[in-house]
Amino acid sequence: MFDVHAIRSEFPILESQVHGNPLVYFDNGATTQKPNMVIEAERQFYLQHNANVHRGAHYLSACATRQYEETRSRLAVYLEVETKEIVWTKGATESLNLIAHGLQNHIEKNEIILLSELEHHANIVPWQQLANKTGAIVKAIPVDSQGIISIDVALEYIQRYKPRIFAIAHASNGLGNIQPVAQLIAEAKKHNAICVVDGAQAFAHLAPKPIELGCDFYVGSAHKAFGPTGVGFLYGRYELLNQLLPYQTGGEMIDTVTIEHTTFNDAPSKFEAGTPNIAGVVAFGAALKFIQAIDRRASQKHELTLRAALVEELRRIPNIVLIGDHEHNIGTVSFVVNGVHPLDIATLLDHQGIAVRTGHHCNQPLMQKLQISGTVRVSFSLYNTLDEIALFITALNESLDLLKD
User: Is residue 362 among the annotated active site residues?
Assistant: First the structure.
């Protein structure tokens, strides 16, 4: 049985007051809150095991290395991939930059990098930079008026452009749409595309399996999955991972160094130059334990129940326009109110203790296509409740009444 109240008790920040009101945290797409076990894991690392990883010939270094590598192994088991295929980064953004930088020798002038109009800027700008360096061309699969990618249109674009690189979000940052990535990757692979999936939004909701999806790379961020900020991961198919150019150079990632020449280690250490965020990785291990202890089907059902309840309430309010895929969604509701700026709504909601995100959500091409400046985004996590939705609707109606005056 899924007990949301027991889960909420693990998150101390949810007991907070904001402007004299109970905190209602609906900004989980930006970052999730952290359970006690994650907070305590980072604290205990600094209290008892703080030392640098690898190469140390003393007890503390051995402890730090063991915990650091245990998290890598735990993530590999969760993703059902090999441990050596997991690279630690500071977030999904750095992971995508690492891939785009590393693929410079794998793409040539006039070859196509295919994205979609739904992409987060982190899955657009690195590819633009790669295109600038190599003469490749960036193209995007369009969305419709609701911000949804038609599978038929997507397949037609893949067949037409035969991309060398195909990069797509597993779930949309701004709208929460779940993309049919396995089907699209299968088509892209017919044309020998290197396939990259941005899993920043999907990781905490969908328990992704990169091998089942058929992708070459899958990236995510710990802080969107109950872990600390400053930690991310890159899964890469090992053969291709080792072919990437190093993203950063320095200590830890080398095999041999002379004044004249350097050779590099194999992955994953090839991409982990310098001292990493050791405490953050250890705390992410606790977040993974938290996730693995929860019935994922039950938590997904709970999140989608919340989304359906909110959508039903919003449809009763005049001038609200809902945007996004209501059938395939991780649990995000994105909307606009005709004649009202999203920031005004968010500001008034904040005064009542309710945290939402507004603006373009790092999705400017999407917003341009939809001909809007931004949306109000409500993004759920497993600790949110129907009671919080009731508080939100009351606060939203009061805010809209104020904005009418």
Answer: yes
Which helix H or strand E contains 203, and what residues bound it?
helix 203-206
Q: Can you name the residues that pair with 138 across neighbouring β-strands?
A: 113
Give the type of residue at 202. A
Structure tokens at 235: 């899964």
Summary mean pLDDT of the chain = 96
Other beta carbons less than 10 A from residue 162's beta carbon: 15
pTM over 0.90: yes
Q: Is the peptide bond before 268 cis (omega within 30 degrees of 0)?
A: yes
> Cα 109 from chain centroid?
30
Render pLDDT for 283-302 as a digit per residue (tens, 0 to 9).
Answer: 999 999 999 999 999 999 99
Q: How far apart are CA 81 and CA 112, in angstroms?
A: 28
- For residues 342, 345, 347, 349, the Cα torsion angle rounded to the nearest 10 degrees is -140
pLDDT on residue 264: 86
Q: How far apart are CA 27 and CA 34, in angstroms?
A: 13
Q: Which of 63, 195, 215, 362 is catalytic?
A: 362
Helix (H) / strand (E) containing 281: helix 278-292
At a CB cut-off of 8 Å and minimum separation 6, what does 336 contact?
Answer: 320, 321, 323, 342, 372, 374, 375, 376
pLDDT at 400: 95
Q: Which of 281, 179, 185 is nearest to 227 (CA)?
A: 281
| Structure token digits, residue 51 | 């030392």
Q: Which residue ranges of the chain lie beneath pLDDT 50?
A: none
Contact 255, 269 (CB under 8 A): no
